[in-house]
Amino acid sequence: MESFALVLVYLIIGALLRKLPQFPQETGLVLNQFVLFVALPALVLQKIPLLEFSSQLWLPAITPWVLLVIVAALIILAGKFWHWEKTTVGALLVVLPLGNTSFLGFPMVEAFFGEKALPFAMIYDQAGSFVALATYSTILAAWYNPNAATPTAGQIATRILTFPSFIALALALALKPWPYPAFFSLILDSLAATLVPVIMIAVGFQFRLQLDNKETKPLIFALGVKLFLMPLLALGFLSLFKPDPLLLQVVVFEAAMPPMVSAGAIAIGAGLALRLVPALVGLGLLFSFISLPLWYLLLQLYL
């Protein structure tokens, strides 16, 4: 639990830095870009070669897509039942199915399950959350935003193929048969070690909480689905295949992550539920520091 305590300390540091005039409002964005272009690719290059291929590796890749289909259907049904506005339904469709499986997920998986669990988390994130962000969320945000054109298939493919961590994933898989030179491994180790403190400080710096009474019901629905129903669905789905215990725990844990910050940014950029989305992302992050330890304990009891 010391690693979990460190994550909380980094969050507090980020929140405190926001109050200092020496750190401009763009600080969080700059730190995010460092993680996206440097620390995260380094971590992928470092950990993926350690992955031992098995017949069950498809499970971390397919589970987020199974959850996405189920959750999207639930959002549409809930929107019809409670007569939510179109922008509210659109915002939830863009944000809710995707979890913060890299920026928060990797540090949390490492804190609770150790470094050996990270490759499973990376498969879940890269084959699931990231591809869904670049395709599903991007298309739906444009669909619900009347002022935006739907991206073409070529634009989506380019976005995926040029994303730094996707390039790192392809390189790591291609280079898996050969060990890295010692100096290159040292560089990767040092850069990957910056991911957790930098991204959690960035998350703490960017944390915002905005509430509106009108959107209380969609907010409660979304938090319940994201933090409790989705990991429960993942557990039920995975139990059908009797996977490796560590794989099961990591995938369920990733499914329990709060809403993805990047998906929230896409929804806000499309003008969808501008009060609901920040509240959902902010409260989801806050409550996840209670729900994630609970899920860890439940998974230990389950296995």
Structure characterization notes:
The chain is an all-alpha fold and 303 residues long. The protein is built from 14 helices and no strands. Belongs to the auxin efflux carrier (TC 2.A.69) family. It is a multi-pass membrane protein. This is Permease. Keywords: Cell membrane, Membrane, Transmembrane, Transmembrane helix, Transport.
- Major sheet description: none
Structural class, from helix and strand content? mainly alpha
Overall pLDDT score: 86
* Shape estimate: globular
What is the share of helical residues?
Answer: over 70%
Order of helices and strands: HHHHHHHHHHHHHH
Q: How many β strands by DSSP? A: 0
* Termini Cα gap: 19 Å
User: If you compute it from the alpha carbons, what radius of gyration comes out, rounded to the nearest whole angstrom?
Assistant: 19 Å
Helix count, DSSP H or I runs of 4 or more residues: 14
Strand content: under 5%
The poorly predicted ranges are none
Key words describing this protein structure:
mainly alpha, 303 residues, 14 helices
Give me the secondary-structure topology.
Layout: H1 2-17, H2 27-47, H3 58-82, H4 86-95, H5 105-113, H6 118-144, H7 153-161, H8 164-174, H9 182-192, H10 195-206, H11 216-239, H12 245-255, H13 261-269, H14 276-302
Helix pairs in contact: 1-5, 1-10, 2-8, 2-9, 2-10, 3-4, 3-6, 3-11, 4-6, 4-13, 6-12, 6-13, 11-12, 11-14
Provide a concise account of the structure shown.
It contains 14 helices and no strands. By secondary structure, it is mainly alpha-helical. This is Permease.
